[in-house]
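REQUEST FORM: STRUCTURE PREDICTION
Request ID: SP-0412
Submitted by: Lab K.M.
Chain count: 1
Length (residues): 443
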Amino acid sequence: MRPRQSAVIDKETALRLLAAVNLRPESRRFAIDIGGSLAKLLYVQRTDETQQDLGIKKLEETWPGAQLSVRIPEIGVILNFFAFETRNINDLVKFLKENWGSGISSKDVRATGGGAVKYAENFREELAVVLQHLDEMDCLVRGLNFLLTKAQKEVYIFDHEPLLSAAMSEPASPSVFPDLENSRKFVDASKDPFPYLLVNIGSGVSIIKVNGFEEYERVSGSSLGGGTFWGLSRLLTNCKTFDEVIELTKSGNNSKVDMLVGDIYGGEYGKVGLDASVIAASFGKVVMKKEVPDVYGWAGMWKQFVRAIKGTSYLWLNFLLSTPALGQFLRWMGYDKKTQEKLANLGLRSAFSANDVALSLLRMVAFNIGQIAYLNSKRYDVQRIYFGGNFIRDHPYTLAAISFAVRFWSNGETQVRERRGSPTPISCSLERLKQQNAFTDDL
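STATUS: Completed
RESULT:
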C-alpha cells in the first residue's frame, strides 16, 4: 500500500511556495478560489517556460502531493495548483504585503468563492489589490467544461471491484486498498459532454445540471458535505488535520460502530432485498452499547482514578511531542499516531476506536451524497454524474463509497466520474488569459 499523499499543505509550506513563485511581473497568471474551508491557488505556466524554476517541484520531496500540475498541450500550458486552509488567509495577505507589496504589477487579481467577497477588504487595505470577484458557480461549470473538452486524463471512472464490493461494511484492509493509478479509467475529452450533473463537494454540497457551455442551473444540494465530515471528526477524534482523519479510515471497521441489517434481523432481510451487511443506522451500535452503572465507594474511586490516568496520559504525551529534541524522536517513533487513534470521548474509548468512527463517518457522508446525486440524476434523466471537490482528494475509500452508493441505487445504470484539480481557479485564470490573447479563440 502506497503512503497517503497529503492534499492540503500547511501554512508555512504554502508561504514558502509563494515565495518561490515570483508573481511581480506576471500576476495576471495568478487566480484564487477562497472557499469556506480551503483556499485553492492556481498559477498558469506556458510550456515553453518549463526551464523557469517555480519552486513547486522542490516541495515534492518534503511534502508529497502538496501540489498538482496538469499539462494541457492543446493550448500549451501547465496548470499548477495547491491548496491550504482558509483560516490562514490573513497570513497569506500579510505575506504578500511583506514580500511583494508594491511590486505586484497588476492591482487586480481574479478570485472566486465566498472568501473573495469576505476577504476583499483585507486585500484592498493591506495590498491595494482589488479581488475581481467572479461568480463561483459560473467558474465551476466553465472550468469543468474546459477539462471535459480540452484535457486528457483529468476525468476518470473509479474501477476497483474488490474495494467497491467491500464499500458497504467490510473493514479496511491493505489487500483491497488499491494503487489509485491502476484503478482509474480515464474518460477521453469530448466536444459534446452534455448533459451531465456536477456534484461539487466542498464544505457543503452543490448539485448542478449542465446542459451546455453556457446553460446550467443549480438543482439541489446538501449541508452534509466535507465540512460536516471534518467538523464531526474534530469533535470525535484527536486529529488536527483532514489528512490525519483519512489515515485513520485505512485501518477502520465501520461495522463495529454502525448498526447493520444483520444486527437487527440476525441475517439478511430477503423480503425487501437487504443483505445482512447493509448499514441500517450509521453509528447505531453506539446506541446499543449498554451503560455501565456508576460505582461508588472505594471501588468507584479507584475506577475514576484509573480513568483519569488514562485520559491525562494522552495530554502528557502531546506535551512531550511538542518538546524540541524528545518530541522529534517520539514523532519519528510514531507516537504522534497514538494520540490520533483515541476517541475524544473518554467514556467510549474502551468500546470504540477512532479508526472505526472515522470510517463510519466517511461512509455516512459519502453514501448520503451518492444517494442524493443518484436521485437527482433520476429526476432529471441524466446518466452521467461528475463528482469533485477536496472532500474526495483521490482517496480510494471515498471514491469507492460514492461509486458504490450510486451503483447500489441505480443498479449499475448510472455512470460515476471523478475529476482532478479545481475547476474554479482554472476558469478565473482562463478568463484573464483570454483577455490577453494568450489562448486561442476557441476557448
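NOTES: The chain has a mean pLDDT of 75.
Reviewed by: T.R.
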